[in-house]
Predict the 3D structure of the following.
Amino acid sequence: MSSTGPAAASGPPQPPVHVPVLLDRVVELLGPACAADGAVMVDATLGLAGHTLAMLEAHPGLRVVGLDRDPDARAEATRRIEAAGHAGRVTVVPAVFDELPEVLDRLGIAEVQGVLFDLGVSSLQLDRPDRGFSYSTDAPLDMRMDPGAPRTAADVVNTYPPRELARVLRVYGEERFASRIAAAIDRERAREPFAGTARLAELVREAIPAATRRTGGHPAKRTFQALRIEVNDELGALERALPAAIDALAVGGRVAVITFHSLEDRIVKQTLAAGAADRTPPDLPVPLPEHGPVLRLLTRGGEAAGPEETAGNPRAASARVRAAERIRRAA
Ligand SMILES: C[S@@+](CC[C@H](N)C(=O)[O-])C[C@H]1O[C@@H](n2cnc3c(N)ncnc32)[C@H](O)[C@@H]1O
């Protein structure tokens, strides 16, 4: 996730102030693979192009293919890339990142040297109340990263059967009062369907036991996270995209993934660990090269941001980065 400051209270609209998370570490992890002239990096979550700009500046021969499903993010990223004088080195593509293989095919790119995923919402999305991601301001209950996508958070809240709604809140929000909240939503929506974020946030606050309202931040935080993940199929897209990104890596190419909650981190951990494992059948006496690992892990566990970064950018506190290098072609 990346951080942008809130819009100025008065005067002309200010461009968002942008603080990319774990920036130095990402540049360090991807750098060795992206330093050669003609190297290509896919920024699968271009956002406001913070990481992309740092990589372009560090490696003058690098080209970037930047994907984002959000038109506002693409517009702002394009503006920043142009302002930095790098327009000729970046291709910005409207896509969900699990379309990576098709995007590379279309661009005639057979393999890439780097792939970066910086998951979740950008602060551009969080700080724009009209996008409906935030429980702190009343706005339409939307939460789509791609405003052209068919399903909004209001659709989920107003139409999912209570059991399914409870599952979404429990699994994606790790919400222990999921069933109570789902039952309360079911009762309330029968009176009047939900349209805005404030009514939902207030209902969640009322649905959970009073004693727990005082701990763990805003009571609606977990519900809003769960709805966002469901609306944008965030985990499904990651499960499909990460293996495809590893397939697209040249030998020596590197992938880095920044996650913001344990469900994402688990998918990344398992996918990278599977690539780094030797798959020689256990009954064979010696490891076979064609069953050997295709990845070498570059991080020990999920690396967190340091205290200085977290102090300046609270959103970095939950960030974890994992990275790996491709060490051979698949058999
Ligand atoms: C945390 S921000 C990235 C910030 C970026 N690294 C920077 O430094 O500016 C995540 C971005 O990824 C986009 N995004 C999230 N999931 C996506 C997906 N499955 N496909 C394409 N874009 C996605 C969001 O729209 C958002 O703009």
In short: Residues 234-248 form the longest helix (15 residues). The radius of gyration is 21 Å. Residues 298 and 324 are 5 Å apart (CA to CA).
